[in-house]
From TrEMBL:
Name under which the protein is recorded: Pyrroline-5-carboxylate reductase
Species, as recorded: Treponema ruminis
GO biological process assignments: L-proline biosynthetic process
Keyword Transcription regulation applies: no
Subcellular location: Cytoplasm
Length: 262
């Protein structure tokens, strides 16, 4: 499979770094408007840097790691040069396939939403497409993205929700880890040790949810002994509207994703 990526910033770079580890580097091309950054990325990961966006179109699977506000300029340059056999995979948050097709009517698109955890091969990525993408092509896209973590196909109507939950979610989790570590320091633990304990606790807890298939509320109840320490902490979280704060954060991120797509 020939693969390319326009943009090697935080998200595009994370995805392509994972892809370069599992696919033939000689078949992978990248480009970036910041040529120095793009060349550095290519050198570090063993793929090929090309100078222009049009050169990156010489691939079957073309990843578009461009922020929504810059899509118009990029498509003005490449829309007439996208091959009929190519599949363009867009990472632009909130931008629907219908909008992408308005930029390049003859192109075929897959829309994706990864997250920053692709940097360690643990991304949660959602993809969606129209009927013009074949089953084999969609399978190949899943295979490519599988290099960076878990991949699921969802209806496009869920993509704003995906953006808010798994796209923005890592930032919310990082805030929780930071707060948990701050609390540990407040209670006397050295800071470096506090970050390890907080992060490993979140990592292990997430693993229990995924591996056991048990409802999170049931797992929570398993930890809460009668008149124990944990239920006191849970009561404090409830008193301070912890659940509602999380729900409001995700709802706000979802609303912003919807706005970006208009």
């Amino acid at each position: 499979m020939t693969i390319s990526c326009i943009g090697t910033g935080a998200m595009g770079g994370a995805i392509m770094r994972a892809v370069c580890k599992k696919f033939d580097k000689n078949q992978i091309k990248v480009t970036d408007k910041n040529a120095e950054m793009g060349k550095k990325f290519a050198k570090e990961n063993g793929c090929t840097f090309v100078e222009t966006n049009k050169e990156a179109l010489a691939a079957k699977y073309i990843f578009l790691a461009v922020k929504p506000q810059f899509l118009g300029d990029v498509f003005d340059e490449i829309k007439d040069a996208i091959g009929a056999e190519s599949v363009v995979i867009s990472m632009a948050a909130g931008v629907k396939i219908e909008k992408l097709q308005s930029y390049a009517p003859n192109a075929r698109f897959v829309r994706m939403m990864p997250n920053v955890c692709a940097q360690i091969g643990e991304a949660m990525t959602a993809i969606t497409c129209k009927d013009d993408i074949t089953e084999q092509e969609l399978s190949h896209v899943k295979e490519i993205l599988g290099a960076a973590g878990k991949v699921e196909e969802v209806p496009e109507k869920l993509m704003d929700c995906v953006t808010a939950v798994s796209g923005s979610g890592p930032a919310f989790v990082f805030m929780f880890i930071e707060a948990l570590a701050d609390a540990a320091v407040r209670c006397g633990m050295p800071r470096a040790q506090a970050y390890t304990y907080a992060a490993q606790t979140v990592y292990g807890s997430a693993g229990m949810v995924l591996q056991s298939g048990t409802h999170p509320a049931v797992l929570k109840d398993m930890v809460c002994s009668p008149a124990g320490t944990t239920i006191e902490g849970v009561a404090a979280l409830e008193k301070n509207n912890f659940r509602n704060a999380v729900i409001e954060a995700v709802t706000a991120a979802n609303s912003r994703s919807v706005a970006l797509g208009k």
